[in-house]
Every structure is written in C-alpha cells, then in structure tokens.
Amino acid sequence: MGTGRQLGRQLQQWLKQNGGDSATTSGTALANRWGDALGSDDGLKAPLRDLASRPLFRLALNQEGASQRATLEQLSEELRRTYSPEVMAELLDLLEAFAGLQLPRPVSNATGARSERASRTRSARGSTLDGSLRRLGRHLEPIAPGIALAAAAALVWMWVGRELDRLLFEAWGWSGGAVLVLVLALIEALGLGPLRPWQKAGLLPATSLGKRASGSRPQAWKWITAPWQQPSRRQAALNLVLLAVILGPSSLQLPDVLLRYGLVSLATIALAALVSSSQPTGEGINEAQAPGLGGASGAVASLIGLGVGLSLLQGRALGYGFGPLAIPAWVLLLIEAGFELSWLARERQEDGTRLWNRQELLRQPWSWGLLLGLAWAVLSQVNILWQAGSPQG
C-alpha cells in the first residue's frame, strides 16, 4: 500500500511544474500519467481514470484553503458510494497528499458513525455562527460611526450637566430628573413653534439604516439628536408623563441622569436599528409612513422594566410617589405597553400587515428598553445577594 499517497505527491509536483495551472493538465493526460506510474498494477487504473474526469476533482485543483477542503469532502462522499473501502483508502491517500490536509475517513461501526455525524453537526453549527457574525458585522458597519459619535456625545452631556448643576440647578434645588423632563418638553415645544420646519429632522430613518449611507457624515449626527426628538406628539406626551412620575421625585444629579439617558437611549435605538437594517427595505415597512427611530421610549421602558423586575425578584411592590399618589411599577408597564401596542396596531392596520409580529416588536426601542431593564434588575438582585452573602471585612 502507499500507492495513493505517492501518486498524490506526484500530482502536487506536476502542478508546481505547470505553475499551479491545472488547465494544462487534462483529465485524460492525468489518467495516462497515473497509468504509467502504476505500471502493471491495474487495480487502481479505472478508479483513477474516473477520478481525473470528475468535475469536483477538477474544481479542487484550482482551489485552496477552506473552499478546497469542502470540495474534496464532497468528492470523497461521491466516491464512497462507488468504490470499496480498500480503493477508497488509496483515493483518500491521494487526495490528502495532493492537498496537504486530512479528510474524514469512513468508519465501520455505529459508534464511529455517530462520532462523525456529531463532528459534522458541530462543524455546521460553527459555520452557522460564523455566518451570523459576518451578517451582524455587515449590518453594524454602516451605523458604527454614528453609534461611536453618540457614545462620545453622552460623555459631553455628562460634562454639560455637571457644569449646569454647579452654576444653576444645585442652587435652585432642582433634581436631575426634573431638568431632563424640562429639557425634553422644551425641545418638543420648539418643534411645534419656531423649529417646526425641522420637526423630526433629527430622527434616524427607519427604512435605510442597512445602507452604508446611514453611517456617512451627513447622517451620523442624527445618532446624537435622535434620543432628544420624539417620533410623534402622542409619544412625546406619554414619555414626558412617565419620566415625570419616575424621575421627578428622585435625587439623582443631572450629570448622572444625562449620561444614563444618553447611553440607554443609544443602546435601545441601536438594537432596534440593527433589526431594521437586517430586514430588506419595504418588507413589512411603509416607506412613506414609517416613523423615524428616536425619542425617550427606550429609556422610559428600561426604567419601568427595572422597577417591575425588582418587584418580582424581591417579592414586593415597588412604586413611585407622584403627589398624593403611590403608583406601582406594574401600572406604569401596563400604561406604556397599552399605548405603544395600540399605536403599533393602528399603524399595521393601515399598512394591511399582521399585528405585533416578533420582527415588528423588535424594531421598537421601547421593546429593547423593557428587556434591558429586566436584565438590569436581574444583575442588581444578583449583586445584592452576593453582597449579603459575602463576609464582612
């Protein structure tokens, strides 16, 4: 034995002599060369003549790396259906010696077969994960400049908040939450008045985020303005009321409020944008009527999700004081979800599409806000339990 490995090395040398061009070595010429090398040994002449004429083998001669391995594995599967294990062993030796790699060998028992199937399954899963990561990279690449710019802007807002607190709001006794509500209300009022021609100009386009143009300089600035401009008046009213209830009584300083608002809004809008960009333009989205991405919905939903999550994990109702009222977190969840889902249902009825499908919900920043808030609650509770169980120094 060892004939196949010797023939594979000879094939490698022949290709090198031709400068790696397999077109100059036809299947017939290659079979004749192998026949001369075999001499009087006729056992492999017919299989080698068949191998030299197969399209997959001719294709593998011009390939390298992973693509060549995939082609040779497919070729070996074809050959295995035709030839005996003894002949297949020689042919696999030839292919391995020529390509400089190791191919899967046929197994003769059930355990080996299961092992090979499991190996192929792991390989398929790895390929699927690799493909998913590549697709994510393609969708993330055009919006990455805007995300980076908005993340840097959040640090600028924190500095502005610190200076405003030092110069004005600490002396007036205003909390950071009250200032945030005031700023968002002022921006909305200006959009209804002197800035009406530019109303919604700072929102991200919901139907073209997958294009590279959305990450170009004329569009990247919208990632900074999107959290501060509400997609609609009704959403603006809902967000302002909920923020006043949640943050109004809080004692958070303005720089902390602005930093958290900027980063959470950026995270929820970015996740919604990735879902929008992964769906082909026009599929389930009305180009003319689709609202832009932006607003405070994601940040508001994250605060509500945090309160609801902690209520469930701690087994007690957490609420927010608003004047004489003590409003539980779950009531705010019902209010926000009820309004958001009803508006979404009305838009889908106008488009004639199915209501509340998963893809549609994941294109909403408030959906991601709820998920992030619940995750934040779980992490907070884990941290509380860990600190309670750790020995005191």
Q: What is the helix content?
A: 55-70%
Question: Topology as H/E string?
Answer: HHHHHHHHHHHHHHEEHHH
Largest sheet: 2 strands, antiparallel
Shape: elongated
Low-pLDDT regions: 109-113, 210-218, 281-288
Beta-strand fraction estimate? under 5%
What would you say this structure looks like, in words?
With 393 residues, the chain is mainly α. Helices cover 69% and strands 2% of the residues. It has a two-stranded antiparallel ribbon. A hairpin with a 2-residue loop joins strand 1 and strand 2. Helix 1 packs parallel to helix 6, helix 12 packs across helix 14 and helix 14 runs parallel beside helix 17. The longest helix has 31 residues. The radius of gyration is 32 Å and the shape is elongated. About 6% of the residues have low confidence.
